[in-house]
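Box 3.1 A note on notation
Throughout this textbook, protein chains are presented in two layers. The first layer is the amino acid sequence; the second is a token string describing backbone geometry. Keep the layers aligned when reading.
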Amino acid sequence: MSEWRATRLGDICKIKYGKDHKHLAEGTIPVYGSGGIMRLADTALYCRKSVLIPRKGTLNNLFFVDTPFWTVDTLFYTEIDETRITPEFLYYQLKTLDLAGLNVGTAVPSLTTSILDEIEVMVPPLIEQKRIGCTLRVIDNRVTNNKKINHHLEQMAQAIFKSWFVDFEPWNGEMPNDWREVEFSSFLTPRTEKTNDPTVPLFSVTDTGIYPRSEKFNKKLSKASTKNKVAYSTDIVFGMSREILNWGIMRSPIGGVSSAYNVFAVDSGVNSKYLESFINAHAFYFKDLIRPATREGQGVDKAALMSKSIYLPPNEVLTEYYTIEDALIAQILEKEIESAHLAEIRDTLLPRLMSGELSVADIGGGK
């Protein structure tokens, strides 16, 4: 630790504003914004490793870019003096800081170049920086690779479902005669039960499913927990939407959701996994469920929902299909568990490595 030194961020890199590049035509170059890669453009404006820092909003949501060509949109980006600090080390050092605590005090959390320039960071010799950065990047790269594998597995599952239950390829492109077509009104029952138990976990519904509310929002659903609706496992829940239908199938045993949501019990005779995949595969068919509501956003048209139809294959067909899909899901879960374990290791090592309390040599990662 004696060889570590304190230095201003402005002395080891230049922090610049990323411009609004919406005028660029569509292409193959990633354009980074506050949420990650926003779109693809036809022009690369930068070609060096960099740390991207939000200017407004979620200030701790940093990105490390090491792709050959990229563009940045309304973020800060760093031009680093690599004779003094490595881009990887700078990224992880900034990850240990609370940039949100540097907010200039505007209504929307914001940063300026002058504030960032004055940040003091602790910097070891370059050789140790490279070891630390390499060690942590190996972990993060494995997590990123797992996400790519899981995305591929999810696409495989969706493609197989479409092949069987949309295109009917195993049956020569025609739906078999023994499949039943039923209306939603025959297997959905509205739930209006309210919870009076403050220990019931809270959930929110997005256009990608149902999530624990703590993962998405800080604000409580309501002042009194008794105002929250109850949803049980396999229930279908519709949230508030704007242009995209927000809905999901409840997978936890029980949860509380906003009283503005619509909750429906699904009859046990309908496989909830099949129902979920069916709606996803026929998104356009369900788009007209969104209707104007009295509060911000949109509600779900319950009458239109109940008049919708779904075709149900025999149980033996579903059993055969889910033998395939469940094997893919098992692989996805395995990768998710591994990634969570790796993230835990990284988060444990990060503050200790970046403070000099622990060296890479101490964990067997260097000499």
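The radius of gyration is 25 Å. Residues 268 and 319 are 15 Å apart (CA to CA).
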